[in-house]
Amino acid sequence: MEEKNRCSWCLSSDLYKEYHDQEWGKPVYDDATLFEFLLLETFQAGLSWITILNKRENFRKAFDNFDYKKIALYSDDKIQELLLNPGIIRNKLKVYSAVTNAQNFIKIQEEYGSFSKYIWGFTDGKPIDNKPKTLKDVTATTPLSDTISKDLKKRGFKFVGSTVVYAHMQATGMVNDHIESCWTRNQ
């Protein structure tokens, strides 16, 4: 992989670099992709992102290509199957939360027309550019991620603490936290 100036958090593997260069921080307005990142971020809680990235394709297969409409209808048998799948994170509470979160995701779509309208409504539909000079300038939470987290929890979502929500905001480009010297900064 070509060596370019990148955010230092992604330098440990080619998979990390590829994710950083092609996905992280790029605005996502598509509900299916927003749900994929929501599911992955909730499983990441307490773990490293590279752990999730390494298992992403396993998650994709196990969770029906992140189809929230199917996930919302998972039976106990399907949940038990997931809990036996060594390719994913087999945390019982997180697996159950995937189903609950899919159900609540659909409720938000029904209320707002799309999850995208709901989530991007917190930023008036535009990315927030934090313009960090170094990685030390990037925070794990913000007052806005606190607000979104509280609202999601009020709506019944699980594993959506402020840190998870902020990571979701970064991943889906709601915030641009690429450091000043990163080649993707103004892409």
From TrEMBL:
InterPro entries linked: Adenine_glyco (IPR005019), DNA-3mA_glycosylase (IPR052891), DNA_glycosylase (IPR011257), Tag (IPR004597)
Q: Residue span of the signal peptide, if any?
A: none
Q: Name one Pfam family in it.
A: Adenine_glyco
Provide the alphabetized UniProt keywords.
Glycosidase, Hydrolase
User: Which Gene3D superfamilies does this entry report, sorted A to Z?
Assistant: Hypothetical protein, domain 2 (1.10.340.30)
Query: Is Hydrolase included in the keywords of this UniProt record?
Result: yes
**What domain of life?**
Bacteria
Give the E.C. number(s): 3.2.2.20
Q: What class of enzyme is it?
A: hydrolase
What terms describe the molecular function in GO for this protein?
Answer: DNA-3-methyladenine glycosylase activity
Q: Which PANTHER family match?
A: DNA-3-METHYLADENINE GLYCOSYLASE 1 (PTHR30037), DNA-3-METHYLADENINE GLYCOSYLASE I (PTHR30037:SF4)
What is the designated name of this protein? DNA-3-methyladenine glycosylase I
Q: Which organism is it from?
A: Flavobacterium plantiphilum
